[in-house]
């Protein structure tokens, strides 16, 4: 028969919780079976629960050190009113002689390896509490520092290799120098920056061609309302050299001047210290006259792209981002842009003579040629053919305008995305273009000053997609006064004419014949005698894609 477990009588405490302080306070009829010597201490619910029983504690050492420890007031401590000891003989498992009943349990934490992925990435350094935004900013600063460090190492490792590739691509000769040509003179570019010469205001000898009015609505174009660049395949553009110009031949026969050139050739000479790509100009001395010509298919007919940039372009000629491909693309964009921004309603401003290079019935692009004469020295005069592309009415007076377009092919090369920065940071975009295309912008400004244009318009044209070099959009058009823009880009007109005057004086000392001047690998001017004969044919150029 199973015995019945008897709980016993629980005394009633009329004064509060827990057992009464004395069992004598209970009613006489109540008998208690509470074991004697059971400790009890008042407690609070906020207190932590300590050890129930510590079998490994040494009471002798605890009592010996009790005087040195502060009072805790807890059961089992030296100053506890319920200090007691356990009778180990009452617990057979706790017999010290029976060692087989115990098992040692190591309570130390498992040692972790000092090296390893988990320890390295999961460790947490103690940090002071920070606000959430401060933590985010701290992470951003650390990421920027790390990114800058990687960029420095990357550029340092590639600097020598890129410089060699850039030098090889830049200084490729624009013409094959024949062994029978004789070297006559070498002039360092550093001497050109110190030259200075002042000329008086030019004299207009003749105006030819017709101009259409500029459409002012293009000044309000933004990247948000961009316009597609149109193609003008039916309009003819002429790139005629000096000696093939019938008007210049007529003026030469009339002894109107001693030196003859075009604005493109003069701008190339004036901005020679800024040039990086190789170029060449043919000089013909006929009697006492001097003619500056370009070869048919010369690089002067194209527009350089990223010429002064430090970022190297692909060397493969068939690459859409190579120097040659970008030059052809830039010339194509420039021609179409100069015709799209016009009011094509048939209303034109005509001049003394029609276009001297167009045949009857040809549709000619809007362009006017101003044949102007400058006095260089004594009886020496210079005549140049200058071009303007449009006219605009300001205060009931027609003002000449030159039209040119900057083109973006891939934002990764320039580091500035025109679609994002052009409207809000136009100054930063222009500064980047001045750094990457310093020579091209300087030549455009020099041509506008030579033509005495009242305004020069610069268009920002980009590809529809970086890998699509056939389709383009216009993102904006900005106008500048040529002389104000020249001072902004540090282009000195006195230095421009000083370079031209020094080259003219040097060439006037030569005998009759054909010569070649250009830029070589060491950025020196070369002046060579060209034994070839024959004139280049007039070129009617239209860049098509």
From TrEMBL:
Name the segments for region: Disordered: 11-36, 60-81, 97-151
Q: Which keywords does UniProt give here?
A: Cytoplasm, Initiation factor, Protein biosynthesis, RNA-binding
One GO MF term attached to the UniProt entry: mRNA cap binding
Q: Does the keyword Cytoplasm apply?
A: yes
Its GO biological process terms? cap-dependent translational initiation; formation of cytoplasmic translation initiation complex
Transmembrane regions listed in the UniProt entry: none
Q: What is its main location?
A: cytoplasm
Q: Which GO terms describe its cellular component?
A: eukaryotic 43S preinitiation complex; eukaryotic 48S preinitiation complex; eukaryotic translation initiation factor 3 complex
Domain statement: The RNA gate region regulates mRNA cap recognition to prevent promiscuous mRNA-binding before assembly of eif3d into the full eukaryotic translation initiation factor 3 (eIF-3) complex.
Protein name, UniProt field: Eukaryotic translation initiation factor 3 subunit D
Q: Which organism is it from?
A: Gossypium arboreum (Tree cotton)
């Amino acid at each position: 028969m199973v015995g019945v477990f008897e709980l016993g009588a629980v005394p009633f405490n009329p004064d509060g919780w827990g057992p009464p302080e004395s069992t004598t306070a209970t009613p006489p009829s109540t008998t208690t079976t509470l074991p004697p010597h059971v400790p009890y201490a008042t407690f609070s619910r906020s207190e932590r629960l300590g050890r129930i029983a510590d079998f490994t504690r040494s009471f002798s050492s605890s009592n010996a050190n009790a005087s040195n420890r502060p009072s805790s007031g807890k059961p089992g401590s030296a100053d506890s009113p319920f200090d007691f000891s356990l009778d180990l003989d009452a617990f057979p498992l706790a017999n010290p002689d029976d060692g087989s009943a115990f098992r040692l349990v190591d309570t130390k934490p498992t040692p972790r390896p000092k090296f390893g992925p988990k320890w390295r990435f999961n460790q947490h350094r103690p940090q002071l509490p920070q606000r959430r935004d401060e933590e985010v900013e701290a992470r951003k600063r650390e990421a920027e520092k790390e990114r800058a460090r990687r960029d420095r190492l990357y550029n340092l490792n590639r600097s020598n290799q890129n410089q060699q590739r850039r030098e090889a691509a830049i200084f490729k000769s624009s013409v094959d120098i024949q062994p029978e040509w004789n070297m006559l003179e070498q002039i360092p570019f550093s001497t050109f920056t110190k030259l200075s010469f002042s000329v008086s205001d030019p004299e207009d000898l003749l105006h030819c061609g017709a101009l259409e009015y500029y459409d002012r609505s293009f000044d309000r174009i933004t990247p948000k309302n961009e316009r597609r660049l149109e193609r003008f395949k039916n309009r003819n553009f002429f790139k005629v050299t000096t000696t093939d110009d019938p008007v210049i031949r007529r003026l030469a026969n009339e002894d109107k001047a001693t030196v003859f050139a075009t604005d493109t050739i003069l701008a190339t000479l004036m901005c020679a210290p800024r040039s990086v790509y190789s170029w060449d100009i043919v000089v013909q001395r006929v009697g006492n006259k001097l003619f500056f010509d370009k070869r048919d298919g010369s690089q002067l007919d194209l527009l350089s792209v990223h010429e002064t940039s430090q970022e190297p372009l692909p060397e493969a000629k068939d690459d859409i981002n190579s120097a040659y491909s970008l030059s052809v693309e830039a010339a194509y964009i420039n021609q179409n842009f100069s015709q799209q921004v016009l009011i094509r309603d048939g209303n034109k401003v005509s001049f003394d003579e029609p276009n001297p290079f167009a045949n009857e019935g040809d549709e000619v692009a809007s362009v006017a040629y101003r044949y102007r004469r400058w006095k260089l020295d004594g009886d020496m005069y210079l005549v140049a053919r200058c071009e303007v592309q449009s006219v605009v009415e300001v205060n009931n007076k027609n003002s000449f305008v030159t039209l040119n377009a900057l083109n973006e092919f891939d934002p990764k090369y320039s580091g500035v995305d025109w679609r994002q920065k052009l409207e809000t940071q136009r100054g930063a975009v222009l500064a980047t273009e001045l750094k990457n295309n310093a020579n091209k912008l300087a030549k455009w400004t020099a041509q506008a000053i030579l033509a005495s244009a009242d305004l020069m318009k610069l268009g920002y044209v980009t590809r529809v997609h970086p890998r699509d070099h056939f389709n383009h959009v216009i993102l904006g058009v900005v106008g500048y006064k040529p002389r104000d823009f020249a001072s902004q880009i540090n282009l000195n007109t006195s230095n421009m004419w000083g370079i031209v005057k020094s080259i003219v004086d040097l060439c006037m000392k030569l005998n009759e014949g054909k010569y070649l001047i250009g830029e070589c690998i060491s950025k020196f001017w070369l002046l060579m005698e060209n034994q070839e004969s024959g004139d280049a044919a007039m070129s009617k150029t239209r860049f098509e894609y």
